[in-house]
């Protein structure tokens, strides 16, 4: 995945903390850890077969981030004719860090923000980006 733009596609799990962690991890990757190496698209556009969204996922490495076992992001990428290069369930990050339970949905609290950092840093390493911004706390 190192030499191409990687599409990170989070689920639309509005109102669910793990969906929010997936979305915030995507934005952290795009804006802070891997600018220019990571992009995303609207899951709804992919669901309706928008030609630009379909082309984007078909022609680039794709990582899906699903907030629950429904795996909507993964299933929609597969419906567009592409197998994700990596399918992540955000809950698995929590399972490895049970002490970091999100305290809310829109405001994840400090534990939830830490999960965002951990997930984004792990994915950044996989995408071959720096693991963290210079001067940031260890993930």
Note down, in words, how this protein is organized.
With 139 residues, the protein is of the alpha/beta class. The protein has one domain: 3-Layer(aba) Sandwich (Rossmann fold), CATH 3.40.50. Helix content is 45%, strand content 12%. The protein contains six helices and four strands. Strands 2-1-3-4 form a four-stranded parallel β-sheet, sandwiched between helices. The longest helix has 19 residues. It is globular, with a radius of gyration of 14 Å. The C terminus is likely disordered.
Helix-strand makeup class: alpha/beta
Q: What is the name of the CATH topology?
A: Rossmann fold
Strand line-up across the major sheet: 2-1-3-4
User: Ends: how far apart?
Assistant: 22 Å
**What is the N-to-C order of secondary-structure elements (H for helix, E for strand)?**
EHEHHEHEHH
Radius of gyration: 14 Å
> How much of the sequence is in beta strands?
5-15%
Give me the number of helical elements.
6
Q: What is the molecular shape?
A: globular
What is the C-level CATH assignment? Answer: Alpha Beta
Domain module tally: 1
Q: Catalogue the unreliable spans.
A: 132-139
Average the pLDDT over all residues and give the rounded result.
Answer: 88
> How many β strands by DSSP?
4
The major sheet is characterized as: 4 strands, parallel
User: Under the CATH scheme, which architecture would be assigned?
Assistant: 3-Layer(aba) Sandwich
Helix content: 40-55%
